Amino acid sequence: MKGKKVLITGGTGLIGKRLTQLLLEKDYQVAYLSRKKTSIPSVQVFEWNVDKGYIEDGALENTDYLIHLAGAGVADERWTEERKKLIISSRTETAKLIHKKLTEKHIRPAAFVSSSGSSYYGEDTGDIRNTESSPPNSDFLSQVTVVWEKAANDMAALGIRTVKLRTGIVLSNEGGAIPRMAAPAKLGFGAPLGSGKQWVSWIHIDDLCRMYIEAMENESWEGAYNAVAAQPVTNEELTKQICITLGKPQWLPNVPAFGLKLAFGEMASVVLGSSYLINERIAKETNFQYYYEELDKALVEILL
C-alpha cells in the first residue's frame, strides 16, 4: 500500500523531476498540479488554471504534504516588463489560489514547503555573509522573493507548518547553470564571468531534494532556511573546478561584464551578482547531512 500523498506544483521542472524520483523511492504517492492534463508514469496529474481560479476536484483532498516549486524561470528570457510580471505572478498567484481552495475546503496538509531564492538578500551583496536573519534588499529579484515568501506565509496563517528554502545555484547535469558553463569548457573555452570574484552559493540537486523531504517530514523545520552547501565559492573558482573536473585548460580571459549586460540586459545580474549565504539554521538547528559538501565531489558526480 502506497504511503502519504505529496502534491507538487512545478513538478516537471529541474528540481521537481528529481524530487519526484526520490519521493517514489520512499514509497510516497506523488501528485502534480499541472496546466495540462498529461500522463506521467507513477504520478497522478491534476489540472489547474490560475487565471480561472480552477483546481481539479480531488487534487487537494487527502494531501499530506504540499511542495510549491512553480515559477517562471528567472534566467530563461530577457526581463521585459511583461516577463517581470510573469516571474512574480507565477510564484504568488499560484500560492494564493491554493490558499483559497484550502480555506474553502477546510483542508490542512501537515506541511507546506515552498521554494524561495538566495536573491532574497539582494541580486549583488558583494562579500556580505548573509544568514537567515539578514534583511531583504530592494532590487527586483529580492522583491520577487519577498512577495513569494509572503504568499507562503499565508499558509502558516492557516495553521499549516510552513518552510521556505532560499536556494542558491543548483548543481545538476539535467539543467541550470552547470551544463551552460561546462559546454564551452569542454571545448577548451572555459572563462570566468565578469570579475570572477563574485560569490556563488551552491547546492547539489540531490542534497536540495533531500532537504525538501526532510523539511516536509520533520516537524521541527519551520520558517526560512538558506538551502546551500556550507562553502560558497567564487565564479572564478567554480569555472576553474569545472575545467579541472573535465580535464580541460582554462586559458581564456574573463568574459567582460559589459558584454554580458549587452547580451542579457538587466538579467545579467543573475550571473554577475555576488551572493554569499551561510546555511546557519541548517547547521545549528537540524541534523541534516549533506552528501556533497565539497564542490569538487559534487562536480565529479555531475560531470563525469
TrEMBL record:
Q: Give one Pfam hit by family name.
A: Epimerase
Annotated signal peptide: none
Spell out the InterPro entries in the cross-references. Answer: DUF1731, Epimerase_deHydtase, NAD(P)-bd_dom_sf, SDR39U1
- Record-annotated NAD-dependent epimerase/dehydratase domain positions: 6-218
The residue ranges of the DUF1731 domain are 255-301
- Family designation: Belongs to the NAD(P)-dependent epimerase/dehydratase family. SDR39U1 subfamily.
Q: What is this protein called?
A: TIGR01777 family oxidoreductase
